[in-house]
Amino acid sequence: MSYGTTVRGARLSVHQYILREQTTTVPTRETINFLKTWEELFQLPGFVDRVPTELMTEGKLLRFYEMDQRAGLRPCGIVECLTDHGCGYVVALPDGRISHIGGPCGRILLGTKWAKAKFAFGIEKRKCRRVVAVHEQRALLEKLITEWPDLEHEDTAWARVTLNSFDELPASMRVALESGAMKNRAFMPGCLSGIRPDRRVDILLDRRIPALLNEARRALENVSLSAGELAALRRRLEALPQEVDSLICQLRLFVSQRNLDLLPLLRPLKQAGIRRVEYLPGPPPQFYVER
């Protein structure tokens, strides 16, 4: 139906037309996909053409479209314009229907109201992008939690019993090694990363990973989190399986005999009269200390 239809010889005003054609379903930006052909535009529910300028100025810009070059040009939706165009905007009219307007046509015919409409469209577009980004990040985080891998395997079992054996070393020796691990290892003999208290693989498995998983589950229930916050949490979770493997490698390097031969060079161990440290793989694995 075109606007401006006469009834009993009298032309309908804009507001009379609105009352006559009012619908309850109002299209939104989210319900309109990206348009590439005129057929996709014209087949949108509630689409109308040849809209008077007065009514178009009361509309709201929903989505920008740029038709494929092979689709050709079509007239603008403003009845006073009808200029052929290939790109423009889908417009939500105040009666609940939708129409369209060419970009240059809006600037020429609507003036300052067009500038205000474009400004509001920009705000809505950014808001929509944020909503979509949050939705995508929530879906990725939920999928990651649902498909979380089982990190308890042969290598982690070896790491646990090896660290238990390390914990059975004399307290003074264990504290000295842990203290050295916390310092800048560039100035320390040997590789001590595998037994660093805040980076032990058993603590990662038993404390840090469960805590972060619980934090991620709470994040899914928190509607105030941004896409960036959700993405940061997801990246922290994604890095954990690789961190487990890395810590196991560091522990294997620590128990290598070449590395253990360097430990007596540590001042506290040297002062304690420790001459040699060996790792006996067992089972069960244990450390041998020679004084």
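the 2nd protein, sequnce then structure:
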Amino acid sequence: MQFFTGRLFVFGVVLSFALMASVTAGCSSRSSPPVPGVASATAANALAQVQQAIDAADGYTLDVQQTNFILPRWGGADSGEVQVSRHGASAKATLKRTGEQDATYAIFDVGTATYFQRSTCPQAFRISGDNVSVLAPYMLAGTVRIAHAANASVDGSAIRATLAGLGPVVIQVDLHTHRPMVITGRNGSGPVVWTFKQWGNVQVRAPSPVAGERGPGGIPC
């Protein structure tokens, strides 16, 4: 009788441990469901997915909020709108020039040339020289700037990284499409916020008439 009771006690202990292990495993699987998209990817994979999504699009339109953001061969630019065509082949922007709040500037990157037109002028001008891409910082398509961003880490639907031309940023990503929704960073004058407000076909043509070549400084008319 004592032998039987001892065996029954051992069997009960083993069964209790088995039940506890099963319950613990079940709770663990329920409390940590797999998260789709960027949240379950490594940082490198997440950046690659975002770059591929941008490259696959027919273009995008950015709402840019910034102060004295330095553009190559241009200088400081404030807030406005930027449109970038498929693969970053061309771009157009309407921005305020830092220090000139009474007008806006339309800037056109077409082929190897860049043109600009002040809202108070009837004609446009070409910036001297070829391969002058004033809007290059906004051209994320057709490049590897997102894919090769440094110091990347993933936090849910956000990627923290260092982006060439902008510095440390947070990229908010749509988990279903892998497209970026908002890129936030800072420059020496304050926050920089680029919101992807529209995806789709973007066509950019050179302005007309073009009065000639000149630099962007000063009031052209």
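The radius of gyration is 27 Å. The chain has two helices and 13 strands.
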